[in-house]
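debug: dumping io for the single-chain case to check the tokenizer round-trip. Nothing else runs in this session.
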Amino acid sequence: MFVEDTSGSPAIHETECTTCGEGPEPSVPDDVAVRHLWCAEHPARTGHTGFLALRVGLLRAVPVDEVRRPGAGGRLHGSAQPSAAPRPKR
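debug: decoded output
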């Protein structure tokens, strides 16, 4: 089971040219302005105008028995436990 990372790790930001694969230096990865400036300057140097911009959030793998679904009476999220719904009357 995967859950959202709560360790405080920042999201990963990547930007690259779709023609040559170059991208801004990773020295300031969370600075959107630096990435946008690089994308504005790159076409002047190369004539390349397509860019790929990604923001990747992190997930953590945890044992299924540690993941509880909120409001489900302690049932495991995604588990195959039987439903508490009543059977239809005949």
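debug: round-trip ok. Helices lie at 32-46.
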